[in-house]
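Hey, can you fold this one?
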Amino acid sequence: VQLQASGGGSVQAGGSLRLSCAASGRTFSFYAMAWFRQAPGRDREFVASIRRSGVSTTYADSVKGRFTISRDNAKKTVYLQMNSLNPEDTAVYYCAADESYAGSSGLQYDYWGQGTLVTVSS
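Sure. Predicted structure:
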């Protein structure tokens, strides 16, 4: 599966953005999907994941209550709605896919998109 992330940009603190990750190739519903992010000088970190059916989701503590992951299997797209953004959310955001794993370890995901930059100013 090939993944293409989009929707990044610059926003002021308190604002919102919605990221999208479009998939092509094999049937999208075969894959659990996740978002990770990497800030300058820091390791990549897990943000959120969603299982194939879309029923079960998991979030990092740092984004719980502010971010929402969702998917549209018909459109082969996973979304990350980000609200109440703060400067600590500034990072390159990556989407990832795996046929069986839906957890928080980036090492377990087989497919990655190219990343989209989110910049939050204070």
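The chain has a mean pLDDT of 96. Let me know if you want another pass with a different chain boundary.
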